[in-house]
């Protein structure tokens, strides 16, 4: 039997949680789901699992990863789960790693497929998605997180039954607990949501050079991104960085200017529908990653594109 | 204050990943190596804490003999000493790595007192296990917060900020504690030439732990398909502008 940790927002399971349910289905056997905290009961009615367990407790109003791990591990033992699956989001991954160490089990993070058996076979992503690893999990109780947006989500459905319970939570499991929240900065198009992202790399040459990148992004109602070479030079803040250790973007078009196309940069742009490269070097690695290219100096090409956009709008 | 930073040596893969023939590793013959960016920020933060509070700072890695380069890089920006768990180059799985790190932390703490704060990356750049910091924290029975972009020590507490849902969640952990951090925590400095000279003379302890059997056993690595294509060249220089705007119109983002 499999147990899936399902996260929920506004009373509904998150997409990545439905993806985790889909991966768990591939393990065979019955699937139970666990939802934790306020809103769990509302979310439970639309979760396609044999049984949805709803953990309710006053102390769960704020995220407390050790408490989550204790509830998850406790329930897995109680129902005799042979696999525990969770989405590879920040909070769920954190709780899963804690559950793994409490249960004395290995954890396979960011898997995209599983093949049941002994050992269980998993394919997991490395290098932020630039490389895959096929691995064997030698254990009777596999803990697996699922790479976000790599697996088709489970179709909507309703649970066989819903069981609400009040877990016991030790004080020690509430030491690490969200105490406060800092609101997101207001205004602007966020990189994660932008339909157009215009990025500048080292080829921009200076912080001032970004004027041409900003101008085009503004005309297209898009967001400005940058490469790590730019952040490390202090030209732009890290919040603008696209890549494995920066933002993951999924625009309709990604316009990458003066960017060579390192795997760690592209790891952040895998969600882009189309990529247009602007680069002086027709042999740059990005030329074999992009869909379209303009060979040329971005300081000439970008102003020309902006001018053409203005001309057609006038 | 006494702090520890755990770092991993990883290859800088460039534009395309090439595997060794046995599909067990990345072909690194022509590549340089670096500390994972998240951990680089951990090193910078430990140095800043030392600049503010004084005390002892240690950098630790488990890796091949060549990983001394990454320890010296950390010492070049201000870490006082290094611990090198020397391997034959074979990657260790997360449980095994955490176990070896716990052993060496216990020995160091028995000799010279508790680490007030231990830094890890949230995940290693290459294998992305997302767990070693939490495993070590559990074994040492210390609180741990993960994925942090803000770490501020205030008396006996460390205030931690974690990006979540656009905003930031705030945790407050009592020291001693373990934190796992992300790039963006700070802007790491570059080492100076005198810093590099000093680093060569700083103490480095080398140990050779034995690798236990792996329960998350790598079978092989695979480069994902469909990575290589040839971009359609829309034009050269500013003359390409009309073709680009045609494309933007076609995609429906031009107006
Ligand atoms: C573990 C790890 C994680 C990393 N994470 C990230 C990450 O999240 N994001 C990231 O971006 N990088 C990341 N990197 C760094 C990455 O490997 C590259 O070093 C970086 O992306 C290079 O940035 P760049 O393309 O701007 O610079 P370069 O590689 O120097 O490329 C500059 C490009 O600009 C072109 N150019 C120069 N002048 C012009 C001009 N006038 N007009 C047009 N083109 C011009 C050049 O032909 C060249 O192709 C990571 C590295 C490691 C090891
Ligand atoms: N070989 C290693 N030596 C020292 N620290 C490591 C090693 N591997 C991983 N770590 C640390 O553990 C963190 C998480 O790694 P992982 O669980 O593999 O994603 C990394 O960011 C490092 O801080």
Textual characterization of the structure:
Helix content of chain A is 25%, strand content 27%. Chain A is of the alpha/beta class. In chain A, α2 (40-44) links the parallel β4 and β5 (51-55). In chain A, α3 packs across α4. Helix content of chain B is 29%, strand content 31%. The longest helix of chain B is centred in the middle third of the chain and has 19 residues, at 94-112. The chains are: A alpha/beta (314), B alpha/beta (255). The interface between A and B is large, with 102 and 84 residues. β9 (131-137) of chain A pairs antiparallel with β12 of chain B, so a sheet runs across the interface. Flavin-adenine dinucleotide (FAD) sits between chains A (201-203, 227-230, 241-246, 258-260, 262, 264-265, 268, 278-281, 284, 297-299) and B (10, 12, 34, 36-37, 125).
| SSE string of chain A | EEEHEHEHEHEEEEEEEHEHEHEEH
Name of the CATH homologous superfamily of the largest domain in chain A = HUPs
Mean pLDDT of chain A: 96
Biggest sheet strand order of chain B reads 9-8-7-10-6-1-4-5-11
Taken from the alpha-carbon principal axes, the silhouette of chain A is elongated
Number of strands of chain A: 17
Work out the helicity level of chain B. Answer: 25-40%
Name every ligand kind in the structure: flavin-adenine dinucleotide, adenosine monophosphate
Helix content of chain A: 25-40%
* Biggest sheet features of chain A: 9 strands, mixed
- Determine the CATH topology of chain B: Rossmann fold
Cα gyration radius of chain B (Å): 21 Å
Beta-strand level of the residues of chain B, as a percent range?
25-35%
Can you identify the CATH class of chain B?
Alpha Beta
Q: What is the level 1 CATH name of the largest domain in chain A?
A: Alpha Beta
Give a quick account of the main beta sheet of chain B: strands, pairing sense, barrel closure: 9 strands, mixed
Largest interface: A-B, 102 and 84 residues
Instruction: Give the SSE order of chain B as H and E letters.
Output: EEEHEHEHEHEEEEHEEEH
Distance between the termini of chain A: 64 Å
- What's the architecture of the largest domain in chain A, going by CATH? 3-Layer(aba) Sandwich
Average of pLDDT of chain B: 96
């Amino acid at each position: 039997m499999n147990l899936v940790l399902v996260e929920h927002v506004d009373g509904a399971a998150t997409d990545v949680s439905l993806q985790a349910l889909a991966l768990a289905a591939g393990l065979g056997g019955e699937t139970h789901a666990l939802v934790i905290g306020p809103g769990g009961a509302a979310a439970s009615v639309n979760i396609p699992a044999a049984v949805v367990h709803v953990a309710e407790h006053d102390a769960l109003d704020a995220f407390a990863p050790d408490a989550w791990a204790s509830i998850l591990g406790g329930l897995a033992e109680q129902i005799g789960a042979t696999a525990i699956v969770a989405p590879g989001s920040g909070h769920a991954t954190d709780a899963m790693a804690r559950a793994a160490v409490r249960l004395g089990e290995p954890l396979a993070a960011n898997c995209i497929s599983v093949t049941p058996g002994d050992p269980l076979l998993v394919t997991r992503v490395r290098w932020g998605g630039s490389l895959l690893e096929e691995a064997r999990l030698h254990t009777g109780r596999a803990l697996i997180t699922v790479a976000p947006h790599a697996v088709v989500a489970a179709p909507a459905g309703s649970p066989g039954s819903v069981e609400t319970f009040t877990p016991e939570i030790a004080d020690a499991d509430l030491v690490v607990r969200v105490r406060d929240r800092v609101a997101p900065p207001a205004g602007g198009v966020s990189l994660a949501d932008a339909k157009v992202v215009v990025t500048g790399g080292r080829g921009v040459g200076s912080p001032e050079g970004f004027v041409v990148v900003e101008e085009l992004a503004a005309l297209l109602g898009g967001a400005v991104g940058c490469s790590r070479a730019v952040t490390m030079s202090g030209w732009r803040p890290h919040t603008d960085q696209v890549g494995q250790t920066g933002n993951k973007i999924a625009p309709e078009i990604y316009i990458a200017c003066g960017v060579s196309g390192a795997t760690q940069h592209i790891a952040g742009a895998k969600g882009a529908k189309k990529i247009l490269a602007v680069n002086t070097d027709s042999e740059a690695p990005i030329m074999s990653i992009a869909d379209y290219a303009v060979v040329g100096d971005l300081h000439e090409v970008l102003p020309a594109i902006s001018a053409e956009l203005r001309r057609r709008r006038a | 204050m006494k702090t520890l930073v755990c770092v991993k040596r990883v290859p800088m893969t460039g534009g395309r990943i090439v595997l060794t023939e046995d599909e067990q590793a990345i072909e690194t013959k022509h590549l340089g190596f670096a500390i994972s960016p998240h951990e680089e920020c951990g090193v910078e933060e430990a140095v800043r804490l030392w600049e503010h509070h004084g005390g002892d700072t240690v950098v630790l890695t488990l890796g091949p003999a060549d990983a001394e380069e990454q320890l010296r890089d950390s010492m070049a920006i201000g870490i006082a000493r290094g611990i090198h768990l020397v391997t034959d180059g074979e990657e260790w799985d997360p449980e095994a790595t955490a176990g070896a790190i716990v052993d060496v932390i216990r020995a160091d703490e028995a000799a010279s007192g508790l680490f007030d704060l231990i830094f890890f990356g949230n995940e290693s750049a290459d294998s992305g296990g997302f767990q070693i910091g939490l495993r070590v924290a559990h074994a040492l029975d210390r609180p741990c917060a993960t994925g942090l972009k803000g770490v501020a020590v205030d008396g006996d507490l460390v205030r931690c900020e974690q990006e979540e849902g656009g905003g930031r969640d705030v945790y407050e952990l009592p020291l001693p504690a373990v934190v796992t951090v992300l790039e963006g925590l700070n802007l790491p400095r570059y080492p100076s030439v005198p810093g590099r000279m000093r680093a060569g003379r700083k103490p480095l302890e080398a140990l050779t732990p034995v690798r236990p059997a792996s329960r998350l056993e790598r079978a092989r690595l695979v480069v994902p398909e469909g990575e290589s294509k040839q971009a359609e060249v829309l034009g050269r220089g500013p003359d390409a502008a009309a073709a680009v705007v045609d494309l933007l119109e076609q995609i429906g983002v031009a107006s």
